[in-house]
Amino acid sequence: MHEISLCESILRVVEEHAAKQNYQKVTAVWLEVGALAGVEVEALQFGFDVVMKKSIAEDARLEIINVPGQAMCLQCMKNVKISQRFDACPVCGAYQLQVNAGDVLRVKELEVE
Amino acid sequence: MCIDCGCGTKEITIDNRVYHDGHQHNHDPHISDRRKVRIETDILAKNKELAENNRCYFHERNILTLNLVSSPGSGKTTLLTRTLNDLQSSFSIAVIEGDQQTANDADRIRATGVTAVQINTGKGCHLDAHMVGHALEKLSPEKDSLLFIENVGNLVCPAEFDLGEAHKVVILSVTEGEDKPIKYPDMFYAADLMLLSKVDLLPYLDFNVEECIAYARRVNPKIEIIQVSATKGDGLREWFDWIESRRQLQFIRES
Fold it and tell me: What is the tens place of the pLDDT at every residue in B28-45?
């Protein structure tokens, strides 16, 4: 639901870097999206095109880099892959999981002119 | 992998033209000015930075800030007005109200005698740290006070936005489904305390409290849970004690 405001934040990041690094046009944005970041990628794609209109990133491509969710199981002390916050530990079945990766939402790279 | 465009692993270069798996790019810098820049920037970084500013503001003034989140209709405002009525003789309290439209909730808060600022987010689905920063300029909460931020009724978006609060408190009413914690896991993961509200209605409902608590703990093993009724008073003592204990912990940390 807040994907539009996330896209506005992406645009702000892109514009701030444009001023610092002196580029005029952005043709692609690589975005890391964690499986646990609470973001709907389709909504993000849709919002991206709308928000980038009439900006330096108009018509830019949005490339999503999916980052899997990962947690430490406090019962069996193993690092395990999870796809949702309420998943059970795939090794021992416990729910005592501490998420340690996969909630990222980060602009990784840009392709610029 | 090609360092210029990052596509493909199998590649050959012939006269400065790079061939990847059957397609071809021109990487001659004189022909194309396209380049890649590494940014590695968290897109919520701006909000996090402003949230840290708010957090500093609270620490300097020893203000305990609680961010109240829930779906619409959970009884958040009723619970808050009851809390204000019962606690305002003990502490100085202020409230920031977030809603898409109307000042109805701020009016309900002000009727208790407590100072409140209403933020209308318009189409926005959550409060962010920037809005709260401006609300603080208007509100100027007193030193050693208690600040409640009543977020927009929404169990999704407010989970992602740090406002600088000490704790998120999620309110879930027993008139909703007991599986809400696993339907909206991000919010229950982000919260430190869950208030299970309207428990006076339990005799009339088919709501499984144990199951609801198990779901909440599955998402967040550390979440604390208090069952309350704002109209009948159940669990309020425990809720007020929780607030007092957080205030003291904050005070110890600051001194």
Answer: 544 567 899 898 899 888
Q: For residue range A64-93, list pLDDT tens digits in order.
A: 999 999 999 999 999 999 998 888 999 999
Query: Mean pLDDT throughout B63-87?
Result: 96
- Identify the structural domains of chain A with CATH numbers, from first to last: 3-112 (3.30.2320.80)
Q: Convert the pLDDT of each residue in B159-198 to its tens digit.
A: 989 999 999 999 999 999 999 999 999 999 999 999 999 9
ipTM associated with this complex = 0.80
Question: What are the residue ranges spanned by the domains of chain B?
Answer: 12-254
User: Can you give the pTM of this predicted structure?
Assistant: 0.82
Q: In which residue are the tokens 């980052």 written?
A: A67
Average pLDDT, chain B: 88
Option in A9, A27, A38 nearest B43 (CB) = A9
Please tell me the distance from the alpha carbon of residue A7 to that of residue B53, in angstroms, as a whole number.
Answer: 23
Homologous superfamily (CATH) of B12-254 is P-loop containing nucleotide triphosphate hydrolases (3.40.50.300)
Closest chain B residue to A15 measured between Cα atoms?
B39
Chain A residues touching B186 at Cβ < 8 A: 36, 38, 85
- Tell me how many residue pairs between chain A and chain B have CB atoms under 8 A apart: 91
